[in-house]
Design brief:
Chains A, B, C, D: Its EC number is 3.5.1.10. Chains A, B, C, D: Residues 22-102 form the ACT domain. Four copies of one chain form a homotetramer. Mean pLDDT of chain A is 90; it is low at 1-15. Helices cover 32% and strands 29% of the residues of chain A. Chain A is an alpha/beta fold. Chain A has helices at 33-43, 74-90, 117-127, 146-151, 167-177, 195-201, 221-228, 263-286, and strands spanning 20-28, 47-55, 62-70, 95-101, 106-112, 133-140, 156-158, 183-186, 205-211, 232-239, 249-256, 290-293, 296-299. The first copy, chain A, has two domains: 20-101, Alpha-Beta Plaits (2-Layer Sandwich), CATH 3.30.70.260; 106-299, 3-Layer(aba) Sandwich (Rossmann fold). The first copy, chain A, has eight helices and 13 strands. Chains in contact: A-B, A-C, A-D, B-C, B-D, C-D.
């Protein structure tokens, strides 16, 4: 366990996270976890702002806890809280924990291609102070959105994807990203990431994909959905794993469509729900509200 | 084309459909259809209550029109309107039409198994006058809901499904249904209908099935959905074709769930959305608002 | 604080609440509450199933906590847990708590008038085992639903409301209710309760009322909403206080309507959302998920 | 009736409106309207793309019809279609109509203040070709959004609102707007328009306001809503009349909130639904899908 150290916040967040920290505890459920964690926070006179806890089976199942607490001397106290948690949780528990100073925003890189709806929604929310992250950079395989991104004061890097061999592009991505970001968002980035890249990058990656009932695999999903007459189009935000589009789901939503909607209308409605779902997923991830467990997530939203 | 003749209404519908008829016109789009239909209705001094029209391509695509009109002497006038439409639409159009006296409700049989949530919702809506149908009978492979159904004054027939050979049960179904119903609703009926049965029955069949993003095939879909951590559970009402669960979709909806919902909770939330979606689909079908075209539907809701 | 004692469960709940208790702690926030509560539960080897906590201001604001825990010998242990909590929370905290054995369902009386949509939805959910309550009785100012209610095995009492003087009817209500129920649900009960009755009854009362944007006061709200062309109709479930329809909101929802919906259609759509909203509110209340604070609620749904 | 003439389209719309016109017919219902209109369009060999019709009472109530048709030689044919409609509808009907070449987008001015969420959403939808309008200008009483607006290639005018006397500012507004725009959108413009200004401007004005159940009048509505514990926040888009916030509703929607949402969170969620609702209302208005009637609207969405 380490206390994540990050670059200072670009824009002040409206949310009063000053002097606040989040603590995620996750592992095998056992009697006494709550008391043990509570004792450490109590000893340090931490004010608990919120606490959410869930156990998928109180008899030896998996345990998930998210605590947000505040302390006047938070920065000074965190290292000792960390040591005390380590000591307390070492005693017969099978748990991991993650402690984070919420006044230090997580650093994110956004990958995009030509479509700008998800990208812009994130940039707008960030500028407005609604997204507690530092957007370290935007990377795209197309130069189209460069001016727009830079107008927000965010660095833009154009890394073309030349043909089937992605190794050069991925090497460039790794040079830009490693050590600089805490997570990555694929905002309608239309390239597949290799398993090797995902492993070497070593930080969470959030992706958004369209969802339909029934599912339409392959190219032109909106045309297939139109042909099938679906009444809902949706979107799913999930963590990227090697299994494309099969990683743990963070958030989903749908909008209603009708026979009168053309394929272009379905794409447009789909874009609306994609940007909304991705923004919520990024918000929750950046506020440490999402815990991964096997192939699903616990979201304390 | 025939004017559908049906048994008189059991309970008075609150919707003022007295003296009203619906006209569905469906076929290849061509200039002049609207004028031709309008001329026939105008000649008979019909008051047009509502008119919805859609063309998937105005240059030779498919044309769909639903008109509801009222006439004081509707019953007397309908046969002549029918003849006039036949004459008018015979002139160079490639169209079918369906003319129906809305004061005569369609007759429906409901199939159910043990779960009663969809069945009860339909019976209750019917009793309060919200569903303009005559429920001719309920057929179930389990006797469990017999008392309840009969308390609504609706005939209940128990037709057990004995093993893999469904031919005896299906023969019994056909004896009960043929000539007696205009459509069939599968209200969580947990048996598969054979293609032969569907063909011999010859009336539309509406089914409801749970829907998930992603889809979970086979038994125990709620347990699989729980494992995968879906954030939405849904339902799809569709017309039954030989391809199980692949027929034209009439209606879909979802509800939000979270990691804190157990498998039982997912089933319960799923049941809520199933009964809502099925009831809407049955309502729209019974009001002649749904037009099938290839493998999708036009719903003038 | 008392451990609520109630009649045994009529129907087995599907939710595995065997050996489970809920603990609600509510009062002024102060450092150390979590540790103090955790220590008591830890001492008794309680398995914490879920824990939700919220503070509207960690520096001396209001504190709300809901814990569900399980214990093999729950019934035997509860009195001692109660004493230990009393001792622990007496030390300098300004808190109330409520401890309840979840295997003992709360007892509810449902008040109804002629409309049956909310009433039936509650009765159905209860019979299915989805609502962890004992429905002690249904009281109505109209005899219309008597047969239906009794078919569920629930006592039905007809208490007519004769004119403006409600004192005789309210006296009869109190005779039926006092000591027999833990809360009351007004399922579209079209009579106003006097402040005196509410005070003398002394248990929570949940009401459902239609909601519109904008609000339409007085008789015929659906007709006014139609005239005003609203695009949403809704419902609000709330606790009853002396200020009619102004008590703490438990749950709200809306459905979409259009210009094509008649006043009857608005009522029908409104009824659908009313029964859904009321059922959720009753479910959450009966699972001890709702905490009242000033004129609003904390809902750990 | 006049055929509206407007400036050419700035950006190509993705919607295939080439050679398409919309016809709105609105007035007293009478037998024969559909046939009369159909005959005119039929005579000109118009291909009817869609047709929606509604009557609030087929016996002498109000009649509403929207037809979209296509013609190869649309621009040449429109004047004659206009004359033919005038002739046909003059014969004993009490109707108004509005004929518009859909390839000529309506011209709109957007008013904004400091909040940019609604403004940016409109500018962005317009740039990607989803909003079939020409944005003639943005007017604001604050200079804050000038750079951003101009980056979209749209003229920005700063018209400060100096104190309670709005006459100078309104005179400036009229100078900028008259003859230049077909409608105006108030995208969170925090100034009240005088009745005199509205009358002299003479084009439709669309406004967005937050909506709550219950409603909270005056300043700080989100703080009041938080205090009252609402579970939904919403937004209403409506036409502006002299009665502030009381004009015909075009669109409404809500999002779910909880006790855990702070006042800032409510504002943020409210902003999300405001921009979505306003964008839909502007889209429908610009596609001639909205008909005003008394104090409500017919929306053929």
């Amino acid at each position: 366990m380490t206390i994540v150290q990050q670059a200072p916040l670009q824009t002040p967040s409206r949310t009063p996270t000053h002097h606040q920290a989040s603590l995620i505890v996750h592992g095998r459920d056992r009697t006494g976890i709550v008391a043990a964690v509570g004792a450490v926070l109590g000893k340090h006179q931490a004010n608990i702002v919120s606490l959410d806890q869930y156990s998928d089976d109180p008899l030896g199942g998996a345990f998930f806890q998210r605590t947000v607490f505040s302390l006047n001397n938070l920065k000074a106290a965190l290292p000792q809280i960390d040591r005390d948690l380590k000591t307390a949780l070492a005693k017969g528990f099978d748990l991991e924990y993650r402690l984070r100073d919420l006044s230090i925003p997580q650093r994110v890189a956004i990958f995009a291609s030509k479509a700008d709806h998800c990208l812009l929604d994130l940039l707008w929310r960030h500028r407005r102070g609604d997204l507690p992250v530092t957007i370290a950079m935007v990377i795209s395989n197309h130069p189209d959105t460069a001016d727009e991104v830079r107008a927000f004061g965010i660095p833009f890097f154009h890394v073309p994807s030349a043909g089937p061999d992605k190794s050069a592009a991925e090497a460039e991505h790794l040079r830009l990203l490693r050590g600089n970001v805490d997570f990555v968002v694929l905002a309608r980035y239309m390239q597949i990431l290799s398993g090797d890249f995902i492993a070497r990058l070593g930080v969470p990656i959030i992706n958004i994909h369209h969802s339909f009932l029934p599912a339409f695999i392959g190219a032109g999903p909106h045309a297939k959905a139109k042909e099938r007459g679906v009444k809902l189009v949706g979107a799913t935000a999930h963590y990227v794993t090697e299994d494309l589009d099969e990683g743990p789901i963070i958030e989903q939503d749908v909008v209603r469509v009708s026979h009168a909607d053309s394929v272009v209308d379905l794409q447009r409605r789909g874009a609306d729900v994609e940007r909304a779902v991705l923004s919520r997923a990024v918000q929750w991830h950046s506020e440490d509200r999402v815990i991964r467990h096997h192939n699903h997530t616990i979201v304390f939203a």
